[in-house]
Design brief:
The structure holds two protein chains of two kinds. Chain A is 44% helix and 20% strand. By secondary structure, chain A is of the alpha/beta class. Chain A has two domains: 221 residues, Rossmann fold (3-Layer(aba) Sandwich), CATH 3.40.50.2300; 143 residues, Rossmann fold, CATH 3.40.50. Chain A is elongated and about 65 Å long. About 3% of the residues of chain A have low confidence. Chain B has 13 helices and two strands, in the order ααααβαβαααααααα. The N and C termini of chain B lie far apart (49 Å). Classes of the chains: A alpha/beta, B mainly alpha. The interface between A and B is large, with 31 and 43 residues. Chain B: One of its GO terms (molecular function) is L-phenylalanine transmembrane transporter activity.
Amino acid sequence: MKKMMMMATAATALMAGSVSAEDVKIGVILGYTGPIESLTPHMAESAELAMSEINDSGAFMDGMTLVPERADSTCIDSSAATAAAERLITSEGIKGIMGADCSGVTGAILSNVAVSNGMVMISPSATSPGLTTAEDNGFFFRTAPSDARQGQVLADILKSRDISEVAVTYTNNDYGKGLSDSFVSSFEEAGGTVTLAAPHEDNKADYSAEVGALASAGGDVLVVLGYADSGGKGMIRASLDTGAFDTFMMGDGMYGDALMDEVGAEMPGSFGAVPWSSGQGAEAFAEITDAAGINGGSSFTRESYDAAALIALAMQSAGTVEPGEYKTHVMDVANEPGEKIYPGELGKALKILADGGEVNYEGATNVELIGPGEAAGTYREYEIKDADFETVQFR
Amino acid sequence: MEFFNAIVALSNFVVIPALAYGSQLALGALGVTLIYGILRFSNFAHGDTMAFGTMVTILMTWWFQSIGIGLGPLPTALLAMPFGIVGCAAMVLLTDRTVYRFYRAQKVKPVILVIVSMGVMFVMNGLVRFIIGPGDQRFADGERFVITARDFKTMTGLDEGMAIKSTQGITVVTAVIVVGLLFWFLTYTRTGKSMRAYSDNEDLALLSGINPERVVLVTWLIVAALATVAGTLYGLDKSFKPFTYFQLLLPIFASAIVGGLGSPLGAIAGGFVIAFSEVTITYAWKKVLVYLLPESLEPSGLVQLLSTDYKFAVSFVILLIVLLFRPTGLFRGKSV
């Protein structure tokens, strides 16, 4: 028995030895199958674009190379996601995780695998407010803003428009409930009144009961925190038809051209917020993704690029690829002070860090990590005019 | 004035939407109940049969729209509906020939037919998604409103508005016509009588020389027509999305069972019972009461019996109560 153990150990050592010592593996854990399978290929390609940009520069950790290792989070199956992460950490020997994508599996990987193995995770797309307070020992970051922040932004928008009484309807799932709770508490803190916060189910036959109750409760606008191609649209349609509400405020799930095509013309003056990136970073990102032939306009591609870049820059800043060591450097490279770094300039950032300088990684989404390491996020406040979204300002 | 405001608010948010929804459910439940009464199984594929018929109607509607044929203020879909019925009838007859007839010849137990209908449901579901896609489709045109909430307010000078959508009007009117035709057919025509005879006692009907295949054929034709009409009306009033039609199956079955499976009259009553209970029990009565009660008695809360989260629980509680105390349904259908 002992002999066999020895052999096994020797074999493991041999296998480990066959991987070049210069390779640093990074897990890219996203839901390649499941409800967001149409988004994840673009997200993974964007993250891998950042890694190849770093490899091409040759400036990373005295010539080390980053090697992406994909694994499937499934988006919904926590045990499958946990197993995938476990495999990457124990048998592939990854040094960081770009992922996971959906909030549920991200929380599962974080608590079951990442914290216990001391692995840094940077999620590009988990937005649940619950993750803000998750026990992470400083290993978890995200480049997507928490919905708690969105709730605050929505409350601010109402305040700036002097609207003090609203009714709320949200899609009956973790996203809708979380966003609704954060919005209601921010709004009430600011002195507003929520007459009724009622959930609606997606894909249902009829929404007249929900609209009837909300209309009876009253309010100046109806806050719709749902999905543009599902129950959210059904609620707006039914409200407009019965004349219950004619102005709406919408959360990020409601941003879509389909909504405008169908009901946009009937709801002028309605408004809402959606996470947005604009300016130098977004343009630079569009340039390099076009050059690489990647769909950079898809959702969360920018956040994915930034997540991968942050891992590499933190390693460079710490001078080591050990997660336990470089985790404290993530916030340093993401925030001020230092030279601003945009997509396509990762090589420059690596050189500055190698020379002992400081960088402020802006990336494609104007990255600024706040609180326990999550993006502050920029939101675009829009108003509907002539059946189109018109930008009011950025928040 | 206060009293009229209360009435108008109640009609706008409760009575009118529930009437339209109830008519759609009733038409769907009629199809389910006919199959149960005559072919003796619960057809789980009914929601997707509706989706299939509606899909054909939508494709025809788009074609009519593209070549400029319309009905003016009425939706073009009404013109396309007969084609939808033909398409749907072809589809259900094909399923009957290839699937159900085999099992009927074996004289299998109804529960096996239920499982078979589930298989048919999945195939039809996939077919519809394959042809028209899983997303939302729009095909409504013509005038949207008979009267809008705003016009109503300016016309009457009341504080409350009442909106009547043209689709709601069309739904109720069509439902009345279709139900009238069905009852006339079942009561006065030879084929209708033979269908009822077959439903009441299969052996006796066969002995008196009724051709069972003909009864089955006519039943499927009627069911196809009912399903297409119900589906199209529903799609016009709300929107067409295959998954929603699949979800419609539950309230439709609830309606058919509450009314009494196998009883056409019961299906209609059941549809309205389910629709009205979903809307009224979760309605917040504050608005209506504020108009009706003197100021000192005005409620401060919402006066809502149940939160709208429990909307679906309501129809199922009614279903449970009916099954416990009157297993044959309100109108003495067959026991489940």
